[in-house]
């Protein structure tokens, strides 16, 4: 939705995602997978749980609750700035033995900044910097930079 008193170039986007599966029946094949990048558009961010800094289907969880609050600004007709804050509470997968995973409760926060731009040959360029408090790195805080060039055929 737009911000009252400002032009339609300013947008605030909020999303809430959650899922629940019994820990005893969850495994690496049927548990939820949190995603990171490729499609950073409002329509895609609303239907999928996008955790900034995560790679595609990298993080496996048995139950989770994720809240995103995002500000988007159209700088030029083809250039967008995005600022996002994310909080997650989840039972995240861990290796407990040979060919076995378990789930432990964890939470984390991420702050990210991204720029999306139109690019050559009707493609799109997306650059994101994200800082995570340790949810993605087993308790170690860190940052990541994502660069994506996408084109639809």
Keywords:
153 residues, 4% helix
N-to-C CA distance:
30 Å
Q: Low-confidence parts, pLDDT < 50 over ≥5 residues? A: none
> Could you tell me the strand content as a percent range?
over 45%
Helix content: under 10%
Q: Could you tell me the number of beta strands?
A: 7
Q: Structural class, please?
A: mainly beta
- Major sheet: 7 strands, antiparallel
Count of DSSP-assigned helices = 1
Oligomer: single chain
Anisotropy-based shape:
elongated
- What's the SSE pattern? EEHEEEEE
What is Rg? 17 Å
* Average pLDDT taken over every residue: 81
Description:
The structure is a single chain. The chain is mainly β and 153 residues long. It is built from one helix and seven strands, in the order ββαβββββ. Strands 1, 2, 3, 4, 5, 6 and 7 form a seven-stranded antiparallel β-sheet that branches. Strand 5 (100-119) and strand 6 (123-132) form a beta hairpin. The longest helix is centred in the N-terminal third of the chain and has 6 residues, at 42-47. The radius of gyration is 17 Å and the shape is elongated. The mean pLDDT is 81.
Topology:
Blueprint: E1 10-20, E2 32-34, H1 42-47, E3 59-76, E4 79-97, E5 100-119, E6 123-132, E7 142-150
Antiparallel strand pairs: 1-3, 2-3, 3-4, 4-5, 5-6, 6-7
Give the structure's gist in a few sentences.
The protein has 1 helix and 7 strands. The chain is mainly beta.
């Amino acid at each position: 939705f737009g911000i009252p008193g400002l032009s339609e170039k300013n947008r605030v986007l909020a999303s809430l995602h959650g899922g629940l599966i019994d820990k005893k029946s969850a495994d690496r094949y049927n548990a939820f997978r949190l995603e990171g990048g490729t499609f950073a558009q409002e329509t895609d961010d609303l239907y999928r749980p996008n955790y900034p800094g995560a790679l595609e289907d990298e993080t496996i969880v048995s139950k989770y609750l994720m809240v995103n609050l995002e500000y988007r600004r159209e700088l030029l007709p083809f250039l967008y700035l995005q600022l996002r804050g994310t909080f997650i509470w989840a039972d995240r997968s861990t290796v407990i033995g040979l060919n076995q995973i378990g789930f432990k409760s964890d939470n984390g926060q991420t702050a990210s900044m991204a720029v999306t731009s139109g690019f050559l040959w009707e493609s799109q360029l997306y650059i994101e910097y994200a800082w995570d408090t340790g949810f993605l790195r087993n308790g170690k805080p860190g940052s990541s930079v994502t660069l994506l060039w996408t084109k639809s055929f």
